[in-house]
Amino acid sequence: MSAREEILARIRTAVAGARDDGPADAGIPRGYRAVRQVDDLVELFAERVRDYRAIVHVVPEDDLTAALARVAGGRRLVLPEGLPGGWAPGPGHADPYTADGVLTACAVAVAETGTIVLDHGPGQGTRAETLVPDHHVCVVRAAQIVGGVPEAVARLDPSRPLTWISGPSATSDIELNRVEGVHGPRTLEVVIAT
């Protein structure tokens, strides 16, 4: 018997007789908090996003187009398909590898963690469009902000590709020296429309 066959035989023996009816029937109590009560979702979300070193703008919905033009500041931005009308601060730039940044919508945002979730639906772009440019401008509408992660998960379709963003891309080496822009945009700019 090869080592592989021996390992697989041990696994089969170990799981013999195990139930295969899924975690919901495992008898494990799951008393997770489904809703996080927050007095001001926008304020908490903005505070948490700032904690991640993101740039945050809170603007009235009727000022959104003008705010996006100010934020774009002449940058060549990728404008994904399905971006709401009026959001484009200029002509779109098609190539994420040569663009200055990207402008997207989002699927949902989490106040408790300062996290933005893209499901890459209309206006949210492809993963390459959102992870390659060095600057990501993301519009979050106040109605898209939920208190906690369980609420966000309940709004998402698990069959879609999900990108969870908590601040600009950053990593630290063994000496805890922070390096930004390694796995995605170095700058995250969030425009919250209220």
UniProtKB/TrEMBL annotation:
Signal peptide start-end: none
Family matches, as InterPro entries: FTHF_cligase-like_sf (IPR024185), LUD_dom (IPR003741), NagB/RpiA_transferase-like (IPR037171)
Domain LUD: 98-192
Transmembrane segments: none
One Pfam family it belongs to: LUD_dom
Protein name: L-lactate dehydrogenase complex protein LldG
